[in-house]
UniProtKB/TrEMBL annotation:
Ranges annotated as biased composition (Low complexity): 227-236, 315-333
Biased composition (Basic and acidic residues): 334-343
Official protein name in the record: Uncharacterized protein
Annotated region (Disordered), positions in chain: 1-36, 217-343
Residue ranges with Polar residues bias: 18-29, 289-302
Acidic residues bias: start-end ranges: 264-276
Coiled-coil region(s): none
């Protein structure tokens, strides 16, 4: 039963035989386990397409078997890498491509084994440094502890060993604890380093140039929308003239309405103007509050008083702030506002002058 259950973990489907190429395994793959495990027969069939000997490829160092990373593990990993690329490209690989991938994959597996001496050295260092306090990873026993003592193992009350034997066992326990703690950090780092190096070596190897180009073309075909959008945007900006490009409406205020020229109004020849007023006749006609009212009779002082009254009313109306005047229309430019303000100031000074003359004469 055990042998039968073990065979169920492998795919027994035969591989087609290609000369000088590797046939990809194209049977359905479980999405939850995309890295499919190959049978020993399939591994031998994939690696049998190598035109170089296995001994000529990068070999594992002597300490690799200490962590179950032996030759069998390396062969299975290399065959899986070759088959994964064949499945991705949906075509058998050529002999030179198989040789290049096998060499790069063996090199990546050797890089992963460099973790072992580094972990052992780091664990030995931390074990030796904490020998006086018997420090463990993330924990240091207290000297007044009622259950821990380096002279008794595992506890003071229920101890099995004592004396030098207990101290040696506690030292070994601390060393193993440091190895486990350091591997939790170092193993992902070394795996990432090996995988990144594997990908870079594939991109740099001239024997795999056509294979890399095929993979890049497949990637472009999978996402055509994003590239078309990026290509269309600069082309649209270049083809569209500046005058036709949309502009924000709030930056282009409306042009003020055409003002009627004062020279077009010939009714002023019958008006009774006062040459003493600093405001011109055209401005007084344009502003009804400042324009003078012609009188058939009366002295010049009465007309001046009437002008002063109308000028004061105009200055009050123009000096006040009206929120609706600015929000109803955007044609009221800054130059018109400054002009009206200057006229109002001149009119105020003229009114003050008339008032002083009137008081001095009375």
């Amino acid at each position: 039963m055990s042998g039968q259950n073990g065979d169920d973990n492998f795919d027994q489907s035969p591989l087609p035989d290609y000369s000088n190429s590797v046939a990809p395994i194209t049977s359905p793959i479980n999405p939850k386990h995309p890295a499919r495990r190959l049978t020993p027969q399939q591994v031998d069939q994939v690696l049998g397409q190598l035109t170089v000997t296995w001994e000529s490829l990068p070999q594992l160092p002597f300490w690799a078997p200490l962590t179950s990373r032996n030759v069998t593990w390396q062969r299975n990993s290399v065959a899986a890498n070759i088959n994964a690329l064949a499945v991705t490209l949906q075509r058998p690989l050529a002999s030179n491509e198989v040789n290049a991938i096998a060499q790069i994959a063996c090199k990546a597996r050797v890089k992963e084994t460099y973790e072992i001496p580094l972990v052992v050295a780091a664990a030995a260092f931390f074990t030796y440094r904490g020998r006086k306090t018997w420090r463990f990873p993330l924990w240091t026993p207290k000297p007044t502890s009622t259950w821990f003592s380096p002279n008794f193992f595992p506890t003071i009350r229920a101890h099995i060993l004592q004396g030098p034997q207990a101290m040696a066992l506690w030292t070994g326990t601390r060393f193993v604890a440091y190895v486990a703690a350091i591997r939790c950090i170092s193993q992902p780092m070394f795996n990432s380093w090996a995988n990144v190096g594997y990908g870079l070596d594939i991109l740099r190897d001239m024997r795999l140039k056509s294979l890399v180009q095929e993979m890049q073309e497949m990637t472009k075909k999978e996402r055509p929308g994003s590239q078309n959008t990026q290509q269309q945007q600069p082309q649209q900006l270049k083809s569209t003239p500046w005058s036709e490009q949309p502009r924000p409406s709030w930056r282009t205020p409306q042009q003020p309405a055409e003002e009627k020229s004062a020279f077009d109004d010939d009714s002023g020849i019958f008006d009774d103007d006062d040459d003493a007023s600093p405001v011109s006749r055209s401005h007084r006609r344009s502003d009804p509050a400042i324009s003078t009212t012609p009188t058939a009779s009366g002295s010049s002082w009465s007309r001046l008083r009437d002008q002063a009254k109308t000028g004061t009313a105009a200055s009050k109306s123009s000096g006040g702030y009206s929120p609706s005047s600015e929000t109803d229309s955007y044609t009221y430019s800054d130059s018109d506002r400054e002009s009206n303000y200057a006229k109002a100031q001149v009119q105020k000074e003229f009114d003050a002058l008339l008032e002083r003359e009137r008081r001095s004469s009375s």
